[in-house]
Design a protein that fits this description.
single chain; 79% helix; elongated; disordered N terminus
């Protein structure tokens, strides 16, 4: 490119090159976390924890998302190489190749595999949410509608990309990103509310129960969702304002960032870190206090049968609360 090229053009070219470098870093982190998640799922957790019953589904999830993410990143990396090496003599130079990237099928492949990878990621979020809410219809129906709308928009984007429309001019992409972020935010709000509500009920059932365990899970979910949400909102703002350089940098890493945030949760739950060990010890310690609390009935003149029945009711109530606590450990994975 000549030395008198406009700085805006140079910025877009630099953004593509810098973006693929950052994408390589994020993919490397994503790949390492995928390996850690795989090892954690096939190996028994520490502290004698139980391996999740749905580990095969999680293993399939991390495998298919890794394959799709790898294909997407490899296609983007290959086209970046083509821009400055294989196709450097094309009229318009690197700038034209970046702006009209969808005229090359390799970029359609990168976009399609990246979107399908995001389908699986959002699907995992929905499954977690549905299980935690015990498959409540008022939660499932609107979430599924949004999920189907996201997939439909993604297909429309693929159609435009196959037609050679400039990526920065595909307005459907902006709506797709908004729905994707919206699903993540709604999921976070629903799950956080449910967990805090469960923690409050546990406190009512067991007065000495330490609800900080639920707070730890909530914090983990919020941290994970916030990382992706901030990155995705940056992508949305850049796309809406036609900041093509920043849009390019975000586009080359958005799928890996979303995958990284979900793998952190899977790894922490599968390895029993942060809260699983404390959960099992605290829940096991609570029933004694509640079971023997009914012995005060001796002073009230209750019959022998009444005294026997009261502890059993407390045991059942405590067991129910303990099951709710244990369900969170499985659902979050």
């Amino acid at each position: 490119m000549s030395s008198n090229s406009p700085q805006t053009n140079l910025w877009l070219e630099r953004s593509r090159l810098d973006g693929i470098v950052l994408g390589g870093v994020s993919y490397g982190v994503y790949f390492l976390l995928t390996v850690q998640a795989f090892v954690a799922l096939v190996r028994r957790p520490r502290y004698g924890g139980k391996i999740p019953d749905h580990r095969l589904a999680l293993l399939f999830y991390i495998f298919i998302t890794l394959v799709l993410g790898t294909v997407s990143f490899a296609a983007n990396a290959k086209y970046t190489e083509m821009i400055w090496i294989d196709l450097r003599d094309v009229p318009g130079g690197p700038l034209a190749l970046i702006e009209n990237e969808m005229t090359y099928r390799i970029n359609v492949l990168a976009l399609s595999t990246g979107h399908i990878q995001e389908w699986f990621m959002e699907g995992l979020l929905l499954h977690r949410c549905f299980v935690i809410w015990n498959w409540a219809r008022w939660v499932m129906i609107p979430m599924i509608i949004l999920y189907i709308a996201m997939i439909a928009l993604s297909i429309l984007i693929q159609v435009d990309a196959c037609a050679g429309v400039v990526f920065y001019d595909i307005n459907t992409e902006l709506v797709y990103l908004c729905i994707e972020v919206g699903l993540t935010v709604i999921y976070t709000i629903l799950v956080v509310y449910r967990l805090l509500s469960m923690g409050s009920k546990m406190k009512e059932i067991m007065a000495e129960y330490d609800s900080s365990l639920y707070n730890t899970v909530v914090l983990m979910i919020v941290e994970s969702a916030m990382s992706f949400t901030i990155f995705a909102i940056t992508f949305i703002v850049a796309f809406a304002l036609h900041l093509n350089g920043l849009t390019t940098m975000c586009f080359l890493s958005v799928s890996q960032v979303q995958g990284i945030t979900q793998l952190f949760i899977i790894i922490r739950v599968a390895t029993g870190r942060a809260y699983t060990h404390e959960w099992s010890t605290r829940v096991a310690a609570e029933p004694t206090t509640i079971v023997f609390s009914s012995t005060v009935s001796d002073a009230t003149g209750e019959s022998h049968d009444e005294r026997i029945a009261r502890p059993e009711q407390n045991i059942v109530q405590t067991y129910s609360a303990s099951v709710k606590a244990a369900e969170v450990d499985v659902c979050i994975a």
